[in-house]
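Quick note —
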Amino acid sequence: MRGEILVGVERRRRWSADQKLSILAEVGVNRATVTQVAQRHEITRQQIYAWRHKMRREMDLGNTGPVTFLPVELGERDATHTPSTIVSEAKDETPAKRRRKPRVSDDTLRERIVLDPGEDCPHCAGPLRLIGEDVSEILEFISAKLKLVETARLKKTCRRCEKITQMPAPSGTAAPPGVAYYFSADRKGEHPQKHLAAFKGILQADAYAGFKALYAPDKEGNIKVREAACWAHLRRDFHDAWKATGSVIAKEAIDRIGEVYDIEREITGKSSENRLAVRQKQSKPKVVAFKAWAEDQLGKISGKGDLAKAFRYAL
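Predicted structure written out below.
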């Protein structure tokens, strides 16, 4: 019964492994469906699916030898039904493909990232010598190609104090650790004022009136929360004015804001210390210049138009 299938009630035929693979290979050629291939060889769609499943299972198990097919019980059939009618009554649906685990080979593209703690001991400033490394690997899909990214954290020991130094393991990003969302049933200012009552620091937000009380000094005159306004909202009014009137002043405002955006794009994902240093050195002069320019322009244009409204919102 090895390799034997039924194509009718009384008709039997043996198929070799090579023949079965050849039949499976016909599916999809010139848009041939499983049903069409089955009819061509006077077999059933279910038998093709069984062969296909067997072949895939052999591949998943890593069997590199010839595929071994086992007999499949097709069950009793009505003698009045020919193989053609049995096939035509079945729906032409291909079983869903299973996603396989990517396999890494010697030909897989590789990238090595080395995190070196330096040459001097951070504890006593003595010279460091390499004693080993810890290696982690991740797989990345790039343009339908696999790339193995290896990160090596060099482990060094001090020749003077013998303490071991190593870079910390990457956590994936240097961006802020998380985002929290608070839902309020309405837009009353009491909601943000309540859940930020104990907050101290810089609050980045839009011009929502509910935040204003947070920026006010306390009874001792101390400011607990400093406002960091939203540049996207500021830019929006200038963009609307430019689209409506073609104002060159509005366009210049957009371009100046764009220069600040460009700096932010370059430091995205960097550490907070790095972002602060770049903003102080590059962004701050541009923001100060923008404020002075905006104040000058507001005194030259009509105070009733949308452009003046945009400047007042920004200032």
